[in-house]
């Protein structure tokens, strides 16, 4: 481990210690908003760019160099480990993952095998090279959570209402649980590969789980996500989904150290829902980046102020950077967050001695 990592503002906030500045990174910070990314990707398929260490390393580094973010996120996609276990799929520009043969019955579920580190030697290599190059900047590994992976596999591609996914979940719960168990095993193995190769933290993306009620989340999803988080060695674990206002407490309970919050819930309200002992990450609305800078700046300050209610706060957007975003706005946000004083925080923090006998 690089000695400078122990002073990392990002890791301090995740661990609910006092950071030297409010840490900031952006979901989808690597990607189409950056001209240098578009140039590198010319004529190269998305899956190929995730499996070629020269490209993966360079694309992961681009936003860190350009913007000075406090963490790098490994450049990959949630479906990369599924392709690595032989599921026939592609990532189509402007659409997202497309599955050749959607998974809709027991036989198809039973064909999904586990992931071995030998399936992804290039991922181990890319992470190792990145950790070396990043030095004191932490690398975040990630995976898709079982529900969101299942949604792509069952629907065959992106979906608004997740109709077929819910049909399987409610109609054949035993097949559903088998599917989520297998996807959880793959996600856990993929995260372990990244942590073993040197990633300092992980994020489990359950982007579409906000489609479920709290009761159904607890019954059909949470045990599987909890198993994934429990299987990851001792690094900070971030758990994020979109539209998950009703699920934030349960997503924390699933075993997250940091709960990712989208822009629909004020961070101070999110802290109430999540309860003590967790940090939060978020939550500037990514569409706000298209408004005049004075508006953006005011909202950045609001997010930092609201995040002060948490025992730890990692500044981020409420979801990924949109492709049309002006990257200079991202850089200005990083500068602004870094210049703001680190807010006073509530008690219960890991570096605050608890007074005895009161
Ligand atoms: O910088 C980073 O955050 C790392 C890169 C990253 C990608 N995918 C690269 C990518 C990450 C963290 C992901 C995760 C991912 N992939 C999620 C969870 C995060 C989220 O946004 O909720 C999901 C749901 C997917 C599935 C997926 N893959 C979608 C919805 C899309 C976008 C479709 C489109 O083209 O608009 C993809 C493709 C994808 N993944 C791209 C990138 C840079 C665009 C493809 C390209 O550049 O050709």
Q: Care to describe what's here?
A:
The chain has 358 residues and is an alpha/beta fold. It is 45% helix and 11% strand. It has 16 helices and nine strands. It has helices spanning 9-14, 35-41, 46-51, 53-67, 80-84, 106-110, 121-134, 146-155, 163-171, 173-196, 214-220, 222-231, 248-253, 267-274, 293-307, 327-339, and strands at 72-73, 89-92, 96-99, 139-144, 201-205, 237-240, 258-260, 279-284, 313-317. It has a seven-stranded parallel beta sheet. Strand 7, helix 14 and strand 8 form a beta-alpha-beta unit. The radius of gyration is 19 Å and the shape is globular. The structure holds coproporphyrinogen III.
Spell out the blueprint of helices and strands.
Layout: H1 9-14, H2 35-41, H3 46-51, H4 53-67, E1 72-73, H5 80-84, E2 89-92, E3 96-99, H6 106-110, H7 121-134, E4 139-144, H8 146-155, H9 163-171, H10 173-196, E5 201-205, H11 214-220, H12 222-231, E6 237-240, H13 248-253, E7 258-260, H14 267-274, E8 279-284, H15 293-307, E9 313-317, H16 327-339
Parallel strand pairs: 1-4, 4-5, 5-6, 6-7, 7-8, 8-9
Antiparallel strand pairs: 2-3
Helix pairs in contact: 4-7, 8-9, 8-10, 9-10, 10-12, 15-16
Bound molecules: coproporphyrinogen III (CP3).
Coproporphyrinogen III binds next to strand 3.
């Amino acid at each position: 481990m690089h000695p400078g990592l122990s002073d990392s503002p990002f890791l301090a906030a995740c661990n609910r210690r006092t950071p030297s500045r409010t840490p900031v990174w952006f979901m989808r910070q690597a990607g189409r908003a950056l001209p240098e990314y578009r140039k590198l990707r010319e004529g190269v398929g998305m899956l190929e760019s995730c499996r070629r260490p020269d490209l993966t390393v360079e694309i992961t580094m681009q936003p860190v160099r350009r913007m000075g973010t406090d963490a790098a996120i490994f450049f990959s996609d949630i479906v990369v480990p599924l392709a690595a276990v032989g599921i026939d799929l592609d990532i189509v520009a402007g659409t997202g993952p497309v599955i050749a043969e959607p998974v809709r019955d027991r036989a198809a579920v039973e064909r999904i095998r586990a992931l071995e580190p030998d399936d992804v030697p290039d991922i181990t290599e890319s992470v190792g090279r990145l950790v070396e190059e990043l030095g004191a900047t932490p690398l975040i590994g990630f995976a898709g959570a079982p529900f969101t992976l299942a949604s792509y596999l069952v629907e065959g591609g992106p979906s608004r209402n997740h109709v077929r996914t819910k049909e399987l979940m409610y109609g054949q719960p035993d097949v559903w649980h088998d599917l989520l168990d297998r996807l959880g095993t793959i996600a856990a193995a993929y995260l372990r590969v990244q942590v073993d190769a040197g990633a300092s933290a992980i994020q489990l993306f359950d982007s579409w789980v906000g489609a479920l009620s709290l009761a159904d989340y607890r019954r059909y999803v949470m045990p599987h996500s909890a198993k994934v988080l429990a299987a990851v060695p001792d690094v900070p674990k971030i758990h994020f989904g979109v539209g998950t206002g009703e699920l934030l407490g349960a997503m924390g309970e699933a075993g997250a150290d940091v709960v990712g919050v989208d822009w629909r819930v004020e961070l101070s309200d999110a802290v109430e829902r999540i309860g003590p002992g967790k940090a939060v990450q978020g939550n500037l609305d990514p569409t706000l980046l298209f408004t005049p800078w004075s508006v953006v700046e005011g909202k950045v300050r609001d997010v930092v102020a609201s995040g002060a209610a948490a025992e730890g706060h990692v500044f981020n957007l409420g979801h990924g950077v949109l492709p049309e975003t002006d990257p200079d706005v991202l850089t200005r946000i990083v500068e602004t967050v870094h210049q703001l004083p680190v807010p006073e925080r509530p008690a219960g923090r890991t570096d605050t001695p608890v007074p005895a006998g009161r």
